[in-house]
Amino acid sequence: MRWHHPKLGLVSPAEFIPIAEETGLIIPLGEWVLRTACAEAANWPDDVRVAVNVSSVQLTSKNLINVVVGATASANIRPNRLELEITESVLMQNTFANLATLNRLHELGVHFAMDDFGTGYSSLGYLLSFPFHRIKIDRSFILGLADKGEARAIVRATVDLARSLGMRVTAEGVETAQQLQQVRILGCTEIQGYLLHAPRPAAQILQLLTSPPGRLTRSAAPNVSASEKNGRMCHVRPDLACNRRLTERECDVLKGIMAGESCEESACQLNKRPQVIEDYRERIKRKIGAKNLNEVIQIMMTKGCSAVERQRKVG
């Protein structure tokens, strides 16, 4: 959402959306957004879903169901091609009525994403109260991956939680190749952010969607066919199939190495003594054929541990 004001220039949604919510203008504005987004999605490939943010004010207006049904019907798209992004603040107000509305939309086939996950106080509880399809990790945690062990721990835990609940997980705010590498190692298979593209006018989206997939798209997506072939996806490199060279605990320790955790941080994360983690790290280096942890990271990023095994068999 962008506002090109004739005098003020480009006004950020962070400025005008809160005002629209306070004044009630978010109701007609939100309806326009839903109709427009669905109409645009009608021109896209059938397997591409469109995501739209929904305000708590829209939900409590009691007209959201009619708006969604009207928007999808008018655009002649299936309801399951629409994904509504909501924050937990949406559920904190008039919870029973809001959940009833969301459940009705869910029954119609609409998908839902928990947006800005991790920034509130009750996110885990709401994941149990409503069947979300996706968790979106807030950009503040992605920004802190480089120098904050807490951020890495939260991202890892969120990925594991989403996987156990059968939900997809998306890392928001990925802007650098380093962040892409970090979230990929931590298990994220979907990203959103300026590294892929800055916001584009709707007219340019169709061309973007129908063009051949780029390098970033391929590197971020898991190799599903390879994982199905071996029956399991690599915990450390989601784009590779697991060759069962490392034990599950060794993979947990290896994820910490790839995420840049210290021995003490991994010990705290895995509830083990630092000496136990150090022993695991030595075992991993021997199995992968690395002299040090930097070489472990380099091998995993360029080849994966299965490549080392193939080399040894050939030799």
How would you explain this protein's 3D organization?
There is one protein chain. The protein is α/β, with parallel strands linked by helices. It has two domains: 3-226, TIM Barrel (Alpha-Beta Barrel), CATH 3.20.20.450; 236-314, Arc Repressor Mutant, subunit A (Orthogonal Bundle). 56% of the residues lie in helices and 10% in strands. It has helices at 13-23, 26-41, 56-60, 64-75, 88-92, 95-108, 123-129, 139-143, 149-165, 177-185, 202-210, 215-220, 224-230, 248-258, 263-270, 274-288, 293-302, 305-314; strands at 3-5, 9-11, 50-53, 82-86, 111-117, 134-137, 168-171, 190-191. A six-stranded parallel β-sheet has the order 3-4-5-6-7-8. The chain has a two-stranded antiparallel sheet with strand order 1-2. Helix 2 (26-41) runs parallel beside helix 4 (64-75). The longest helix has 17 residues, at 149-165. It is elongated.
Strand content: 5-15%
For the record, what CATH class of the largest domain applies? Answer: Alpha Beta
- Counting helices, strands and paired strands, the structural category is alpha/beta
Work out the radius of gyration: 22 Å
Mean pLDDT level: 82
Shape: elongated
Number of domains: 2
Q: How many angstroms separate the termini?
A: 58 Å
Q: Number of DSSP strands?
A: 8
String of helices and strands = EEHHEHHEHHEHEHHEHEHHHHHHHH
Count up the helices: 18
Please estimate the helix content: 55-70%
